[in-house]
């Protein structure tokens, strides 16, 4: 296990000013538990090098942490007000900004994304604490008129209880804050299992939560290795203490968690897989569409849940779009995320690289052509792959059905609005979608017909705290952020009063 000297050396090596942010144990009932007997290695995806060892939290410790969380919730329910919770969240927000650069560096070294991308994530992540600090005092309910003159119906929204949070590696800070902010604003306690690949960002937030004034037991974090992850997920789902699960990850895992939660009938909110269409109509501003594609397709080397996966380009503007896009992408620089010249870092692991390769090979075998890239970049590190653009991708290519989650831009021609809507909606997934047109009738028409929970019209940027974030179909259910975000962490109670 990492000693204080090792942690300080780690912080010095990467220019992290606040070494207190580097935590390698589990946060349980307000205490950091560092266990030397079982650890797992956190590695830099850019070069495969070992970064630091983190405690592989034992199941019995997690079970006790869940029990402690229930005790903390019951105590906090009696003592806290929305205004008080809002002040703590606001302090959390301020602390994230004070430690902004350090948090971004931690994110980059364990996730691989460029430092610019990491700074964008910390800005996004912290915004949820600001947002929900303002929402916490405003959890309103209703006084409902009764059909009986002597009766009154009064409703209230109450926190659901202990919440289990399961988060992915691609946004190791934001996927926690988006859930934690809403849960705490409602008055819930939380137990969090961060992604095995990126525990350091999560644990740094655990430290800042304590500094912000989170009461002990209201936030616990259990880092575990890949093998123990499935066991912890099952434990969360089957625990009678945990009343809600919030999960971001693959659809396959979401289905498994839903099945495991059936016996305890938990409240669930899932943000699952995507297969986002990106449509450029003949009347679009091509320059606007190209700029949007650069961000929403290749951000973090294509490893975001709302990345454009299928780019449908009208045949009248196809040549212009493909030429301009290829020119811009060719300017990007692959490299280690901490290199100031780097625009795009590695993929998270070898399996991700293999999936990109399989989608490229499939498309080429069916007639697609390589406009840019197309190969792995092992000279940079084991998990690097070229930013790749494929032209004339056929409609039966695998990438039309399967989310790549990597730096592959497939360009697919279409002729009519009816045709492209049929193609775009030919999927079980419905997280995000994008389209570009100057025709406002079309904007309303297509916006209403795309089967997606979130749609960008003439924009590729969707993420902000005020957006109800979530999908439909196999992309999950529930909404995070926005004025609706707290609802998933509350239950409505009604009191009927007679004799008035």
Short description:
The protein contains 14 helices and 22 strands. By secondary structure, the protein is an alpha/beta fold.
Description:
With 500 residues, the chain is of the alpha/beta class. Helices cover 38% and strands 21% of the residues. It is built from 14 helices and 22 strands. The strands form 6 sheets. The protein has a 7-stranded mixed beta sheet, sandwiched between helices. It has a 6-stranded mixed beta sheet with strand order 9-8-7-10-11-21, sandwiched between helices. Strands 5-6-22 form a 3-stranded antiparallel beta sheet, with no helix packed on it. Helix 4 (100-111) packs across helix 5 (115-135), helix 5 packs parallel to helix 6 (174-186) and helix 10 crosses helix 11. The longest helix is centred in the first third of the chain and has 21 residues, at 59-79. The mean pLDDT is 97.
**Beginning-to-end CA distance, first to last residue:** 66 Å
Enumerate the strands of the largest sheet in spatial order, edge to edge or round the barrel. 14-15-16-13-12-18-19
* Count of individual beta strands: 22
Rg measurement, Å: 23 Å
Question: Overall 3D geometry?
Answer: globular
Task: Report the average pLDDT across residues.
Answer: 97
Structure class: alpha/beta
Main sheet: strands, sense, barrel:
7 strands, mixed
**Number of discrete helical segments:** 14
Low-pLDDT regions:
none
Query: Helical proportion?
Result: 25-40%
How much of the sequence lies in strands comes to 15-25%
């Amino acid at each position: 296990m990492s000693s204080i000297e090792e942690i300080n050396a780690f912080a010095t090596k990467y220019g992290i000013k606040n070494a207190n942010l580097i935590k390698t144990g589990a946060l349980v009932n307000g205490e950091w538990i560092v266990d030397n007997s079982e650890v797992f290695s956190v590695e830099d995806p850019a070069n495969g090098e070992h970064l630091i060892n983190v405690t592989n939290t034992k199941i019995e410790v997690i079970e006790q942490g869940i029990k402690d969380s229930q005790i903390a919730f019951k105590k906090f329910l009696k003592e806290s007000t929305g205004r008080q919770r809002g002040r703590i969240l606001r302090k959390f927000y301020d602390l994230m900004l004070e430690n902004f650069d350090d948090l971004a560096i931690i994110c980059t070294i364990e996730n691989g994304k460029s430092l610019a991308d990491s700074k964008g994530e910390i800005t996004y992540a912290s915004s949820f604490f600001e947002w929900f600090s303002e929402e916490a005092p405003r959890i309103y309910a209703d006084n409902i008129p009764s059909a009986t003159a002597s009766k009154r119906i009064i409703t209230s929204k109450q926190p659901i209880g202990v919440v289990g949070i399961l988060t992915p590696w691609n946004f190791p800070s934001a996927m926690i804050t988006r859930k934690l902010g809403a849960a705490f604003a409602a008055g819930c306690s939380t137990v969090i299992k961060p992604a095995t690949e990126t525990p350091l960002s999560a644990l740094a937030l655990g430290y800042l939560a304590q500094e912000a004034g989170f009461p002990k037991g209201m936030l616990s974090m259990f880092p575990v290795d890949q093998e123990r992850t499935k066991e912890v997920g099952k434990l969360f789902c089957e625990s009678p203490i945990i009343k809600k699960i919030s999960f971001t990850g693959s659809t396959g895992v979401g289905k498994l968690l839903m099945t495991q939660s059936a016996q305890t009938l938990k409240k669930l909110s899932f943000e699952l897989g995507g297969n986002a269409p990106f449509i450029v109509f003949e009347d679009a501003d091509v320059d606007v569409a190209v700029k949007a594609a650069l961000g929403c397709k290749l951000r973090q080397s294509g490893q975001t849940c709302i990345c454009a996966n299928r780019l449908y380009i009208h045949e009248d503007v196809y040549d212009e779009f493909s030429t301009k896009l290829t020119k811009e992408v060719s300017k990007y620089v692959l490299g280690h995320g901490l290199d100031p010249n780097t625009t795009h870092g590695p993929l998270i692991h070898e399996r991700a690289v293999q999936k990109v390769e399989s989608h490229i090979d499939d498309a080429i075998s069916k007639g697609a052509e390589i406009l840019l890239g197309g190969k792995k970049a092992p000279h940079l590190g084991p998990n690097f792959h070229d930013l790749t653009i494929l032209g004339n991708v056929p409609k039966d290519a695998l990438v039309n059905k399967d989310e790549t989650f990597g730096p592959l831009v497939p360009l697919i021609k279409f002729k009519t609005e009816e045709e492209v809507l049929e193609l775009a909606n030919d999927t079980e997934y419905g997280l995000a979608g994008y389209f570009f047109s100057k025709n406002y009738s079309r904007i309303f028409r297509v916006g209403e017909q795309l089967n997606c929970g979130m749609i960008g019209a003439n924009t590729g940027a969707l993420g902000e705290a005020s957006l109800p974030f979530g999908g439909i179909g196999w992309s999950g259910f529930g909404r995070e952020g926005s004025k609706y975000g707290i609802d998933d962490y509350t239950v409505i109670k009604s009191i009927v009063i007679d004799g008035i």
